[in-house]
């Protein structure tokens, strides 16, 4: 989070247009994140750097407020609003018709290495840029801006999703500096309130009938001064680092469901509250089970004689096997219900197991079985049974 953001094209990083919808932003990020993830490209530093750039772009464009401020700032700079020669970091300019010229206005003082928590008067430059860079944008330093939310994905097996599982997630994102613990100050020291602006980050001046506010030069609009900045994070309190967190996926999670982990997102600047982590769960299919809400489904192969005479068949569940009684005369395709053997419910209990019987027709029979089947067919016909009686107008 620094002035280099304004020199980056986050839309280009994600391969989308500036008019892309939020869904298009998310879709583009997910595809790139899957392809570039460090786990998929071990030892590939180029892919790792690209992954970081894509993650940074997503952290801005996925947040409607940040995206709006980013777009406004880029439009402002592109139009030459900071001087007739366009935007130049650290350049100068003052207000005059047609552009900023005249009195010195040093943007380097706003976005310097120790910048953070910028504030400004209503509608001023600080409101736009302070919010964009997650450095305040509020009128007082007593309300630090939280970190951005972070999104990631994981894929589970069908039974893992149904029963619940604990999975490790490896992710690269801005996190609190481990050296200064997010304060931005060298260990053993602390930031102090800026005496020039009394911690507000802005200096107000009156000129005739007009009042003006400008960023405080002493603290670079942060409201605090770090005399001894942390060497590892250069006073920002944030580092991009790869970390592994353990996530408990609750039983019964569905394909596409998002799970929120409070406080596991992007770190806030200089100890501000972190954002949240949202994990989108993808569930792979299973060879035996299907799912209908909280109910498990399966198809049970049976013989014709088992349906006619009745039987008890052992079938699998999520927790071992259970016997299912097939009553005599059961029709092919009938669904039998086993109570409480389905997917666990959030409020307790579980759904049901729905077993659909399906006759398996043998492709080959030996002579004895063929002869026995012919005798049965004759006996069946002699008994008066006609499976097509009353069918199709017959």
How would you sum up this structure, described in words?
The chain has 2 domains: about 5-285, no CATH class; about 290-380, Urease metallochaperone UreE, N-terminal domain (HSP40/DNAj peptide-binding domain, Sandwich). The strands form 7 sheets. Strands 12-13-17-16 form a 4-stranded mixed sheet. It starts with 9 loop residues before the first helix and ends in a 12-residue tail after the last helix. It is built from 9 helices and 17 strands. The chain is elongated. Mean pLDDT is about 80; it is low at about 80-145. It has helices at about 10-15, 20-35, 45-60, 65-80, 105-110, 125-130, 160-165, 305-310, 365-380, and strands at about 95, 100, 150-155, 165-175, 190-195, 200-205, 210-215, 225, 240-250, 260, 275-285, 290, 295-300, 310-315, 320-325, 335-340, 355-360. It has about 400 residues and is of the alpha+beta class. A hairpin with a 2-residue loop joins strand 14 and strand 15. One of its GO terms (molecular function) is zinc ion binding. This is Chaperone protein DnaJ.
Which tags fit this structure?
ATP binding, elongated, chaperone, 2 domains, 9 helices, DnaJ, 394 residues
The average pLDDT is: 78
Beta content comes to 15-25%
Q: How many domains make up the 3D coordinates? A: 2
* Strands in their spatial order, largest beta sheet: 12-13-17-16
Described by strand count, sense and barrel closure, the largest sheet is: 4 strands, mixed
Structural class from helices and strands?
Answer: alpha+beta
* Number of contiguous helices: 9
* pLDDT < 50 runs, ≥5 residues: 80-143
Which H/E pattern describes the elements? HHHHEEHHEHEEEEEEEEEEHEEEEH
Helix content: 10-25%
Shape assignment: elongated
Q: How large, in whole angstroms, is the Cα Rg? A: 33 Å
Note the gap between the termini: 79 Å
Strands, total number? 17
